[in-house]
């Protein structure tokens, strides 16, 4: 029997690339999207720009199931994702998995929560996954301070965080897209052992042999750095807001959803540091 064609939005990114790999490994066809120019759309790669809406209709042609995420940098995730939910509904897709973020359902009127509600009410089979802060932020967003100054520079206090490895998020999404066992449920996704940023610095020090430390900075300093790096003001404000929740301890909570869905315990901080060691050398 022919296996489903799965649309993966953000397929070149941290979660999407691993999700695409896992789906292909299981024999599924993947349609990747990119906002970058594509010479010619094909069944496996299409141009899709969620800011302009360009490419949505074409992206869904012949698709059975879909994975949606909102690219970082845009604070109005509803504007980005609602047209995708609408198109999925119009075409009666067999399943949609939507990734938002842990805490997105704390209030009913945040842009992320509004998309979640739209999907819940769509009549489609769906799952919503809400990951906690990614471990992979230390080899992407926060890498410059680590490589250039040997420091994790964040206004995170001493709060513990149940960071999740993006590879576990991808494993969960792959399972949910290829099974109906958990249909129409939402899952907060976390690692199993909450750690603070000093512990992350110690884990990176251990594998690299370098001295990496955590240094707390003021929220205004992070804001200035993010704006200088070119992030839009509204998205910077969003990041500062959720960093405030982290500092107050809201990101320490753990769930056993990764184990329940995939059958495997989440990656530990030590395993992540070992696997990504080359990033910090
Ligand atoms: N990092 C965290 O700690 C964390 C925690 C919880 C939730 N999240 C959520 O995770 C999501 C990000 O996931 P990720 O880290 O896997 O993403 P990522 O690695 O930053 O990748 C973003 C993807 O979006 C695509 N993209 C960029 N601009 C686009 C546009 N205008 N239209 C369509 N696609 C576009 C990119 O591909 P092209 O450049 O090829 O277009 C890329 O594949 C966000 O929604 C964030 O809120 C993150």
Please provide a written account of the structure.
It is built from 11 helices and 9 strands. The strands form 2 sheets. A 7-stranded parallel sheet has the order 3-2-1-4-5-6-8, sandwiched between helices. It has a two-stranded parallel ribbon with strand order 7-9. It has a domain at 5-132 and 164-190 and 253-264: Rossmann fold (3-Layer(aba) Sandwich). It starts with a strand and ends in a 6-residue tail after the last helix. With 281 residues, the chain is an alpha/beta fold. The longest helix is centred in the first third of the chain and has 15 residues, at 77-91. The protein binds NADP nicotinamide-adenine-dinucleotide phosphate (NAP). NADP nicotinamide-adenine-dinucleotide phosphate binds at residues 10-16, 34-36, 48-51, 69-72, 99, 101, 131, 133-134, 137.
